[in-house]
Specification:
This protein is α+β, with helices and mostly antiparallel strands. The protein is built from 27 helices and 13 strands. The chain has four domains: 130 residues, no CATH class; 79 residues, no CATH class; 118 residues, no CATH class; 298 residues, ABC transporter involved in vitamin B12 uptake, BtuC (Orthogonal Bundle). The strands form four sheets. The chain has a five-stranded antiparallel β-sheet with strand order 4-3-2-1-5. The chain has a three-stranded antiparallel β-sheet with strand order 6-11-7, covered by helices on one side. Strands 8-9-10 form a three-stranded antiparallel β-sheet. Helix 21 packs across helix 23. The protein is extended.
Length: 651
């Protein structure tokens, strides 16, 4: 051991002397030649340090070449060069000092330096010091990424030194943040660590909380009653509490040789087997040891004879534990640091909780907008006209497939979506008019027959879609400007597609209100809905109004299909994923009321997201609980959240 220590001191002294005398790259490399040639992770550290701390600007290139296995040694004199293979199989060497060519050599005259993964990792750490101030911003950013992945106390000083001259605002912000995090973890000055923790208190970043967790890591320990623990105590724990059982506390004393081990049933039986003599154990026949009480008595007899250790009872455990205090002790010795870390983490967790609630609210709002968009057409055909259209989901599917077909001919995704929206409306409007003229018009005021007929139509439309497009999901690609998400902070974000759907839902809400309140079609629709005979006597054609109203609801479903297809799979069965929610949205909100549909979508979307948050691993449970909730809700509000009043309610 003494010899090894002297050797290490000698190597360190030689390294320092070599660095003091080094005037060129060659001097430094030759002074570390023996260590470089061996290239062992256990011994290479001084050589890498000598190269990195030499102060020579060329050393970054040396380390990069060495790391990438492009550093070669000329056998005749042991000199090191940057090597590149020529087309004829020879190797062109380049001097590290000035980049001048050093000639072409056969591979036999050279030795390639091939550092293993451990040595390359050490070189990468040393390279970070150079890369932090590299003129190339990409290399500076890569250095910061490397530090964040594998932080080291030795990198804190060069990181701080690189901040002052940083001109790139984004890199400067990342350097400053990383410096604060590393100060929290590695600075030798406790007050500096406390200040850094205070600066970032309440931060929502995962890296911030990950840096605090090791500071607040605690281990279970104990001390004798009446003595003061020589540790930074996080909390005292009473044996027998929810966090520390009596057996676990006692085992801790056993490991420290401060208490006798607990004799388990298996250990007792093994001791009995080891003391069998002529069919007897401690004078008791083996045949009589069939019960726990008998085996315990035999074991106690062996204890009396001094053959085995005595059993430890509950009273013994309580008496032993009474002499000690148990506590969790921070691995961080400085109490000021852990106190600051606790306060900062608590503040951060409070902000995280608020942000998670906001994120959940945005998710619920996004889902509600999707349900509202899917249900707004049904609010017309079912809520206003009273027609149970089970093929409504298939109109959504037709709209999505219309968008897919348009994109096959118009590769520009923005233009294709702009064209797909009116075209989807036209296709599904025509399909809705056709369905109303051929089927629905003969079944008004006959809800059961309407349900069965439209259910058959939905099956037929699904099969038609399978025959045309196949069973594989088809892509409906969103424009590039809808890629990504609006990131509010590290916890709260929402995709741009969801935002676009929310805006589209609000647009159709305004459009529907305008049509129903400000247009002749809306006036006639309301008149026919409330009293078709009176409307007919006033010159309104109820058949025409019903046809156009049903077509309008179907057309809106087609536009909803284009929007939904931007983030959901486009298949022949996709309508089935939304038909149930659409009906529930209309019924819960209040049949015949667009504001009720909006309220129903908000309630269903919020409830579903809430259940998914409580049970994130089971989305089927969310659907089940939602249906149960709606069944219970309807028992108390059979007409929905916003019920119609007056004559319309009676109808």
């Amino acid at each position: 051991m003494k010899t090894l220590l002297l050797a290490m001191l000698a190597a360190l002294l030689m390294t320092n002397i070599a660095q003091a005398q080094a005037t060129s790259v060659s001097d430094v490399l030759q002074s570390q030649r023996e260590l470089i040639e061996k290239s062992s992770r256990r011994t290479i550290g001084p050589a890498i340090d000598a190269i990195a701390e030499s102060g020579l600007p060329q050393m970054q290139g040396v380390l990069e070449a060495w790391q990438s296995k492009n550093m070669w040694q000329r056998k005749e004199d042991g000199s090191f060069f940057l090597g590149a293979k020529n087309e004829d199989g020879s190797y062109a060497l380049t001097d590290f000092e000035d980049g001048a060519p050093a000639g072409d050599f056969d591979k036999k005259a050279l030795k390639q330096l091939k550092p293993n993964s451990g040595v390359r990792a050490m070189i990468a750490t040393a390279l970070v010091k150079f890369q932090l101030s590299d003129p190339d911003p990409v290399k500076r950013m890569d250095a910061l990424t490397s530090i964040s992945r594998d932080p080291d106390a030795a990198l804190l000083a060069p990181l701080r030194a690189s901040i002052e001259g940083e001109a790139d605002a984004a890199i400067l912000a990342r350097k400053t943040r990383l410096e604060r995090l590393m100060t929290m973890a590695y600075d030798a000055d406790a007050s500096a660590r406390v200040d850094a923790i205070g600066d970032m208190a309440g931060d929502l970043g995962v890296d911030f909380r990950a840096t605090l967790n090791p500071i607040l890591r605690a281990t279970l320990s104990f001390t004798a009653q009446g003595s003061t623990p020589d540790a930074n105590v996080a909390e005292y724990i009473e044996p027998g509490s929810a966090t520390l059982s009596k057996v676990s506390a006692y085992d801790l004393l056993v490991e420290a040789d401060l208490a006798a081990p607990i004799v388990t049933d298996d250990a007792r039986d093994a001791a009995l087997e080891a003391n069998v003599e002529g069919g007897f154990i401690a004078g008791m026949p083996i045949a009589q040891l069939s019960t726990e009480a008998a085996r315990n008595a035999a074991y106690d007899a062996l204890v009396a004879d001094g053959l085995v250790a005595p059993r430890v009872g509950e009273a013994d455990i309580d008496a032993t534990l009474a002499g000690y205090r148990f506590f969790n002790a921070f691995t961080e010795a400085n109490a000021e640091v852990t106190t600051a870390a606790r306060q900062a983490l608590a503040k951060s967790e409070n902000r995280v909780a608020v942000s998670q609630a906001a994120d959940l609210g945005l998710d619920a709002l996004s889902l509600a907008s999707i349900y509202f968009l899917a249900a707004i057409g049904l609010a017309i055909t079912f809520g206003v006209m009273g027609v149970i259209n089970m093929a409504h989901g298939e109109f959504i599917m037709m709209g999505a497939y219309t968008g897919y077909v348009v994109q096959q001919f118009v590769p520009n995704h923005t233009l294709s979506i702009i064209l797909a929206v009116p075209l989807a409306f036209a296709v599904t409007f025509a399909a809705g008019v056709l369905l109303e003229r051929l089927v629905i018009r003969w079944l008004y005021h006959r809800p059961l027959e309407t349900l069965l007929a439209t259910f058959g139509v939905s099956i037929a439309l699904q099969q038609l879609a399978k025959n045309i497009f196949g069973t594989q999901a088809r892509p409906l690609t969103a424009p590039s400007w809808l890629d990504g998400a609006w990131v509010i902070n590290d916890v709260v974000s929402i995709s741009y597609i969801r935002i676009a759907i929310f805006v589209l839902a609000l647009t159709f809400l305004g459009l529907f209100l305008f049509i129903m309140k400000q247009t002749r079609l809306g006036l006639e629709t309301r008149a026919v809905t409330q009293n078709p005979r009176m409307a007919a006597s006033m010159g309104i054609n109820p058949d025409r109004v019903n046809m156009l109203t049903f077509g309008l609801g179907s057309g809106i479903a087609g536009i909803a299909g284009v929007a939904i297809g931007l983030f959901a799979k486009v298949t022949s069965e996709m309508g089935g994923d939304y038909i149930v929610q659409s009906f529930m949205t209309v019924v819960v909100g209040g049949v015949g009321n667009i504001w009720g549909t909006l309220a129903g979508a908000a309630m269903i979307g919020g409830f579903q997201k809430g259940v998914e948050w409580l049970n994130p691993s089971n989305t089927l449970a969310a659907q089940t609980y939602m249906i149960i909730f709606i069944i219970i809700f309807i028992q108390f509000r059979p007409r929905g959240i916003i019920a119609l009043k007056g004559r319309a309610a009676g109808d």
